Amino acid sequence: MRTPSPTRPTCKAVTPQGLALPALLRRALWWTLLTLTGGVERRGRLPRGGCVVVANHSSHADTAALLAALDARHSPAIGAAADYWFASPWRRRICSRLAAGFPVRRTGGGMDDLLTRADALRAGRAVVLFPEGTRGRDGALGSFHRGALVLAEHAGVPVVPVAIAGTDRLLPKHGRLRPALVRVAVGAPLPASATPAEARDAVAALHRRTTQEPLADSAARKRVAAVAGSRWGLLAGFLWAGAEALSWPLMPELFLAIACVAAPRRALKLSLAALAGSLAGGLLALQLASSGVQLPQPLTTDRMRAEVRHELAVASAAAVRHQPWNGIPFKVYAREAGRADVAPSDWLAHSALSRGSRTLAVGLAFGALGFLAHRLRRRYPLYLALLGTGFAVGLALIVRGWS
């Protein structure tokens, strides 16, 4: 059975309403993925009715950015190079199903491929084209080909310039994927009679404004992120967690909630530093207690200590597995384990498992929150106020429950 050649595309007119659900699912897919890799922002909206979108092109991630940002009601279709994206069955399936792509020949016949989209444009769809024809480098725009403008004039729809910023950092040409914020700016429609030079100038100006526009942010978040992103942030996480395992009443998860939201890319390293500090502090607390040294433990109760002694009598070092879930501070387990002469090696092994599961899970969760809430960075002081209030209330309830 022969596979139809991608160089002879056909286009059956389908209304945007019939394609709304697939477009909505694609938008949700790419919005989620881009959110996890740094976030996506959009400024402006497409006009009502069909339109031809012309955008700068510097990365394979440009298609994902447009599908995540453009309105699903337009059911955007993306023009893709037939000799690359439709050269094999698996690429053709990925491009057509996940990116709503249609083939455009680059070596003759491309204009015919574009004109088959005229009926879809008249029905209200958006056709997205990269008039440069290939990915550029260093953010510089190349010359625009005239195909997009011919298609818009033939269909009687406007040309909409769109600028994409950040994809060249997210997925550079011939580079590897790395976290970056992507911004998509939709400009004012141009008449169908616009020239390629006018369309290019509109996209270039929009791209320049988008890349130069500073992100709304909080001075407090930037200061916390600067510290968290340095070696001092790792040291602070280590010392905070180590002090909490000895006597300090504020759990290291509070430190992670502050730092990982401000600097989500450092969430794993900060969590590992806090885990190392917690284990080191717990081991020191055990040794001190076994030597008869009694450090103060504020915000703990006799009932907590009695419960931990009972658990240690039953399960020895393995009793610490209950700590992540029962609200009893880690320092209580460490001191009571020293009093019970638990072997340091057993204690370290079991506490690494219990503390590791909790510390890493909490740190990565707050890091994910930082990525998801990147648009609300300017609200970081409000977040800190809510976090502090919630922590204080939660701690009071735990202490009261164990009193």
Describe the structure.
The longest helix is centred in the C-terminal third of the chain and has 29 residues, at about 345-370. The chain has a seven-stranded mixed sheet with strand order 1-7-6-2-5-3-4, with helices on both faces. The chain is built from 18 helices and seven strands. It has about 400 residues and is an alpha/beta fold. The model is unreliable at about 1-15 (pLDDT under 50). The relative contact order is 0.10. The protein is elongated, with a radius of gyration of 29 Å.
The whole-number mean of residue pLDDT values reads 89
So how many helices? 18
Largest sheet: 7 strands, mixed
| Shape verdict | elongated
Report the order of strands and helices.
HEEHEHHEHHEHEHEHHHHHHHHHH
Distance between the termini: 76 Å
Which structural class best describes the helix and strand composition?
alpha/beta
Spans of 5+ residues with little confidence (pLDDT < 50)? 1-14
As a percent range, the share of helical residues equals 55-70%
Query: Beta-strand percentage?
Result: 5-15%
Q: Strand order within the widest sheet? A: 1-7-6-2-5-3-4
| DSSP E strands, number | 7
Integer-rounded radius of gyration? 29 Å
